[in-house]
Design goal:
Helix content is 28%, strand content 33%. It is α+β, with helices and mostly antiparallel strands.
Length: 399
């Protein structure tokens, strides 16, 4: 056995060796610390920007007509297929002509009778003039013959009007034609049914036509936006509300981009008291019939004159509750956090209204490796280029 006094120096030596070994490991670990992370930075680009306002609305037809007959009768023919496109003047319905042909013959016979009566009164008046000159008849009798001629002339005029009305009933009103071009709906009455015509409320609805090309898009915007548009129009005269033809862009609910172009053609003349909004209207070409009355869409309206603004990639912007920020690298290579006020999105670039300067180096790649206060290695890349412009939508373009 080893004496206790001899074991103590050995234990002390071992403890000293262990401490020195741990110290050496700490120095090796400190010497092997990882280098600063590498990030990609870019300065904000300066683009010419037009602010865009977006609103939801729906399409309405320029013309919408209910097809109703002016005369009553039995429906004899239908000349269209439900839902087809029709042109102005196309024959749609035919009401049985036979009753109107009989009425026309009667009116023509009455007209012939009235003309014969007029011819007799004219001849009788001519004879009366000679008899009056020879004092054979009195002036009263002559005046009676003059009156009879005038009555006969009025009767002829009345019968001519009746013939014209009968011709209208036969040739026009019993043949119902499309008053406008557009898409017709389904027939509401089948052949053989009695059609009630006239001007009253009980007339028979036969079909409905809505115009397709062009088509209107109606939406509402608030009073503050209306005032902004009015002041903008007053400053440069380029944003007149009803007659300026302001270019706008539109997208449907299943589309990602504002790819349809049109122009403003009307703004209402009063603000709705109940909602505090005013109605606006744009018109779009619709040659392929894609837009349908009643369909929803989203319209984009230029809301400012062109101005120069800073833009950064939208992916470089982070969120902290309700605030937005970007990470920038200062001259010492330290990451700093800057809160910004973002604007609208231009493709993949976001307009920055406040919080950045043109000389800031914004981290655009490597955000997961950067933290505020951490030193990084910054690799420069050029400023982002302008996104492609949406046609007709007032999309920003590069300077």
């Amino acid at each position: 056995m080893v004496p206790a006094e001899a074991a103590r120096p050995a234990a002390a030596f071992l403890m000293t060796a262990a401490v020195l070994a741990l110290a050496g490991c700490g120095q090796r670990q400190q010497a092997a610390a990882p280098p600063p992370p590498t990030v990609t930075v870019a300065k904000p680009a300066q683009h010419t920007i037009v602010d865009q306002d977006e609103y939801v609305g729906r399409f309405v037809a320029v013309d919408s007509v209910e097809i109703r007959s002016r005369v009553s009768g039995y429906l004899s023919e239908i000349h269209f297929t439900d839902g087809q496109m029709v042109q102005k003047g196309d024959l749609l319905f035919t009401i049985d002509h036979r009753p109107f042909e009989i009425v026309l013959e009667q009116m023509r016979a009455n007209l012939a009778q009235a003309r014969a009566n007029l011819a007799f009164t004219v001849a009788d008046l001519a004879r009366g003039q000679e008899l009056l000159h020879n004092k054979t008849i009195t002036e009263q009798t002559f005046d009676q013959r003059t009156q009879a001629k005038r009555v006969a002339e009025a009767s002829v005029a009345a019968q001519e009007a009746m013939v014209h009305q009968a011709e209208l009933d036969l040739n026009d009103y019993s043949n119902l034609r499309a008053p406008v071009a557009g898409r017709i709906g389904d027939r509401r009455v089948s052949v053989g049914n009695l059609v009630t015509g006239g001007n009253g409320a009980n007339t028979t609805l036969l079909a409905t036509i809505v115009s397709i090309d062009p088509i209107r898009f109606e939406f509402t915007f608030d009073e503050a936006s209306y005032l902004r548009y009015q002041r903008f129009a007053g400053n440069n005269g380029k944003m007149a509300n009803s007659e300026g033809g302001l270019p706008v862009a539109l997208k449907l609910i299943d589309e990602q981009d504002f790819q349809h172009t049109g122009k403003m053609d009307f703004v209402d003349n009063a603000i709705d008291r109940s909602s505090g909004t005013i109605r606006g209207r744009a018109v779009f070409a619709n040659p392929d019939g894609l837009f349908t009355p009643g369909m929803f869409g989203r319209i984009r309206v230029p809301g400012s004159p062109p101005y120069t603004a800073l833009v950064v990639p939208d992916a470089a912007i982070g969120s902290e509750q309700a605030r937005k920020y970007v990470l920038v690298v200062d001259n010492d290579g330290i990451v700093r956090q800057k809160y910004i006020v973002p604007g609208h999105l231009d493709g993949t670039l976001r307009v920055v209204k406040k919080g950045l300067t043109a000389d800031d180096r914004v981290i655009v790649n490597g955000l997961m490796r950067a933290r505020p206060g951490v030193k990084v290695v910054a690799e420069e890349q050029p400023a982002p280029a302008a996104a492609s412009a949406d046609p007709g939508g007032g999309q920003p373009k590069a300077e």
